């Protein structure tokens, strides 16, 4: 989950959330072994602690590792690093 800055990279929080969703959606099928991949934005007009959430499931650590180093993911990470105020992440094994 990410909380975004009010303004960054020439965009508002809402504009950057949409761009972030687009960049993350481009990562949906980049790694074999990706089972689920969902990007959500906080509901407009609702008070939320965070602005963007990614929920993803991978077959195994190898699939997650492939996703993390893929050029599309690296591109998304670069943008996110510039527009995020904070981030929360939990990786776990089922």
Automatic annotation (TrEMBL):
Annotated InterPro entries: Dabb, Dimeric_a/b-barrel
Domain of life the protein comes from: Bacteria
Residue ranges of every copy of the Stress-response A/B barrel domain listed in the record: 1-92
Name of protein: Dabb family protein
């Amino acid at each position: 989950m990410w909380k975004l800055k009010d303004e960054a990279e020439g965009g508002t929080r809402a504009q950057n959330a949409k761009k972030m969703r687009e960049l993350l959606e481009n990562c949906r099928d980049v790694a074999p072994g990706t089972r689920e991949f969902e990007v959500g934005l906080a509901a407009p007009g609702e008070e939320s602690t965070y602005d963007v959430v990614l929920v993803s499931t991978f077959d195994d650590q190898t699939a997650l590792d492939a996703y993390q180093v893929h050029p599309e993911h690296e591109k998304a990470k670069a943008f996110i690093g510039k527009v995020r105020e904070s981030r929360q992440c939990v990786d776990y094994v089922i």
